[in-house]
Amino acid sequence: MAKDQKHTDTSYRYNPETKNKEFITRISATETEVWQYKEGKGGGANEAGELGGVYKSPARTALFKQDPNPAKNIAEFLASQMHRSTHPEHQAEVFFAKVTDKAGKPTYPYIASIFFNNYQGDLFKYAYTSKGLIPPEDRPKFMGTGNLVTAALGIENTATLINEVLSSSTGFAESVVPRLLTNDMDMHSGNLGVAIKNGQEEIVSIDFGGANASLEEKIHPHSHTRHMPGLGPTNHFREYGRKYKITPAFAAECDKVAKHDYTGTIDDAFEKIVEYNNFKAIKAFGKLLGVPTKQLRIPDNEVNKEKLVGIIKEHYKVIIKARQEDLSKFSAQIKTDLCLKNYKETGELSYKDTEGKVITLEQVIKEHKGYFKAISEGNEKLKFRDNDNSKNYKALKETVLSTIEKTLAEEKLNENSLDNPFYKESYKSNPLYESKPATSFKGAKINDIQPPIQLVNFYPVLKDPRLEALANIISKSSRSSCLLNNTEHNAKENLQGALSTSPVVIKGHLTTTDLTSTPKAFENNQPAKIEGLKDIRSKLVKNIKNFVETIKEKFMSTNNDLKGR
Prior knowledge:
By secondary structure, the chain is of the alpha+beta class. It has helices spanning 70-86, 123-129, 148-152, 155-168, 172-181, 248-259, 263-276, 279-289, 305-346, 361-367, 369-376, 387-391, 393-413, 421-429, 465-472, 478-483, 491-501, 533-564; strands at 9-15, 20-26, 32-39, 53-56, 61-65, 94-97, 110-114, 119-122, 192-197, 200-205, 350-352, 358-360, 439-441, 444-446.
């Protein structure tokens, strides 16, 4: 939880001397902050409640309001804590304020949203005032729909002005991405604002009343059907051009939110929810959130409040974790689009991150391995978020898929490298791998013998115990180091060099087994999913056969020497 209100308490009082409405925030045992009523709420979709409006303290200004649905007050408070957990400088601070009736009995609380310092106004208003123009009184509707209605209402001009502000400002990604996590798609130009920080326009995020409703495991950032007009907030995320979303900064913010640990934030937030809200309000929030009805069938009394909160909190943690995973996929899709954009311009499958570092598509695949592996296995569909890439989906899809298969194949080959402790122990303890002085072999200098290729994966049909011992001491890693990089490490020469200077004894017996008598043992009958796999496989088989012939010759030579004795 953001530290804002963790150790404070706010409550309402009527001041008979000033005949004014006030809220009092207890900062410490001796220090308080007095908020005095100044004016009504103004615009917005919902009423502020009887005590609602703009209040000012000596240092700050806040909007106090009470939604008719107490569940939405809880949802907005929780959203603020979630958003501020990663981006406090871009997300409004929201806290509860206690209210009692004439008998002193607590009623549903209000929530207060603190104004940003140097706040210039809502985004759509600032788009006009920054140009010296008079803004419309209310936020234009149908933004981003691109139909004839927008032109008739003069919305096209408003959209142009807003885009100019977005292009010259910082903080769009920081303001928007956390709202995707809590399903707050009500991020229209009246719920984003502009503040001036160090002389720079900065986008900030306010009013989270649309958050935490009907949370699903996926974020569905561009869905129409889940945000139908008239059935709640529409998907205002769609109103902002993809040029503000298909960016390194946006991908970086998606990663930041996707990787963040919200456990402590959620625990602290629910402590405040319990403190300020009764059983009925909390249960209503559970329904709003989407907790299964069966889990909410608990007798309506305060005794069961703790049990109810536990159920809702755990549900929220699970669903947030799932949404984080989906947000990570969204990041991977954006990065893929960035790589493809550069690929079309320069021929390189890469992009530059926010620090100017070149990030290749291979690096993106490794970072989001689970997502791309699911694509390669047909369990996930490859998505492009950039419209230009979507138009050329078929051609670009093949480029991406081949890169996925190549990268995942290399990853698999490198899984058991020389860094594996088990392999290192086998390597050190076996005389076959003893380091020898520099030895000339066909014109090459060999200071350290390269480990031969592991046979265990290629001879599943051979059960000779004499071969099992050899198989147990051969490294998987040489498949990548010796076979895939033949120009640097010639597998055959390394193996012959090793065998020419090391005695080969398998369980105390010499062998003349003809390993090439069953050529089928070298074949891989699995379908070739990886582009170029046939070439790799043929090289692999060729090198193994050469290796086997070398072993055979060495064994026969040693056997003949023994017979001569």
